[in-house]
C-alpha cells in the first residue's frame, strides 16, 4: 500500500496486515479478517465499511435519504420481481441518470439567475457600495464544457504542428537559429547591471542610489462609478449570453431524452401503478406505527 493510504478499521490497528479491502464511500482500507472475509473471492462487488454504514450520531430517519448508487451512478434499488436483464436495467439507469443530471443543472442555473438579478439591482443603483468590484473589466469566460473542448482542439493542433515540424527539412532549423542569434546578442550581460553596496547605502544616503533601481509605488487611480457601471453592464450582458447558451443546451438534451422516455410510456398501467403505490404507502404507515409501539 502507498504511504498516503488511510487504514480505518473497527479493530483500531492502523497497520497493513494480510488481505486489505477498500470502502467505496470513504476510500479507507480495512482488514479482511475483521469483516469475516478470508479470501479475495469473498469480497463483495460493492463493499461499504461498517463505519460508513453506522456513523456516530447518525439520524435514523435520514439513514437512507441519499442513496450513493443513485447519486454517483444513477442506479436505484431493484426488487426481485423486476426484470433482471442487465442490458435493460443499464439503459433504464442511463435514462434516470440523464434526467437527474438535467434537473441538477436546472437548479444550478436557477441559483445563477439569482446572482444575475442581484448584479442587475447593483447596476440600477446610482452609487452602490459594491460597484467598485467592477472597477476593471471582468474576464469573459466561456461555458466550462466548451472551454474543455477548445483546449482539446488546441492540444490536437499543437500535436499536429509538432509532427509537421519534426518531419520538415533542416532548412527550417537553420533559419530559426539565424533568427535567434541576434536576440541572444541583444541580451545584456549580468555584469553590466549596477551593483549596490550595503555599506554605501548606510554611509552615504539614498541620494547616491541610481534612480533606475528605486521602485516608487504609484498611487492607484481613482475609481469612477460610471466606468464601474459600464463594466458591470458589460458583465451582465455576457452572463445573459451564457444563460442563453445553457438553455439551448438544455433544449437539445431534452429533445434527445424525450423519445427515449416516450417508448416506456403506457397509459393503461397508470391506474394499476397508482393503486399499488397507495397500498405500499399504507403498509409502510402501518409498519411505522407498529415500530413506534414496540419501541416503548
TrEMBL record:
Domain of life from the UniProt record: Eukaryota
GO molecular function: zinc ion binding
This protein's UniProt keywords: Metal-binding, Nucleus, Repeat, Zinc, Zinc-finger
InterPro entries recorded: PHF20-like, Zinc_finger_PHD-type_CS, Znf_FYVE_PHD, Znf_RING/FYVE/PHD
Pfam family, one: PHD_5
Cell compartment(s), UniProt: Nucleus
PROSITE patterns xrefs: ZF_PHD_1
Any one Gene Ontology BP term: regulation of transcription by RNA polymerase II
Region (Disordered): 147-170
Keyword Metal-binding: yes
Keyword Transmembrane: no
Positions with biased composition (Basic and acidic residues): 147-169
GO cellular component, one term: nucleus
Name of the protein in its database record: PHD-finger
Organism: Popillia japonica (Japanese beetle)
